[in-house]
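Entry 12.
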Amino acid sequence: MAKQIFINLAVKDLDKSMDFYQQMGFINNPQFSDNTAKCMVWSDNIFLMIMTHDKFNTFATKPIADTKNNLAGLFSLSVDSIDEMNKITNQAIKVGGSEPNEMRDYGFMQQRTIEDFDGHTWEIFYLDTNKLPTEQTNN
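Predicted 3D structure (C-alpha cells):
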C-alpha cells in the first residue's frame, strides 16, 4: 500500500467548509463522508478530513486550537503552474477565504497563502525545479 497523508481539521460549518475546499480543487469522497465529517481528496495520496468539533473531539487529546487567532500549522500544496496557484487561491478568496499576505516570489518558487473560514492556513506553491539554486547559502 502506498503511503498516504490524512490531514484532520475541526471546522465550525461542515457544509460551508466542504464547498470552500471543493472550490480549491479538493474532491469529496462520499464513501468516507457523513453529516459529521467529509473526506476531501487532493490526490491519490493526500486527503483532508474536515470534521465538526463534536466529531473531532472524539479523536482529540487536547482542546481544539483557536485557529482564527493562533497558528496551529501550515499546510502546503504543490501545483503544476503559477496559473494553477493563482486560480486556486483566487477561487478560495471568491468563496470567502482570506489571503493574509501577498504572494511571495523566491525566484525558483512562488507561493500564496490562503486561510479558510476557521483560520486553517494553506500555502499553495509552484516550484520550478529548473530554477533551484545550485549552492546552499549559509545564514
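Annotation: The chain has three helices and eight strands. The radius of gyration is 16 Å.
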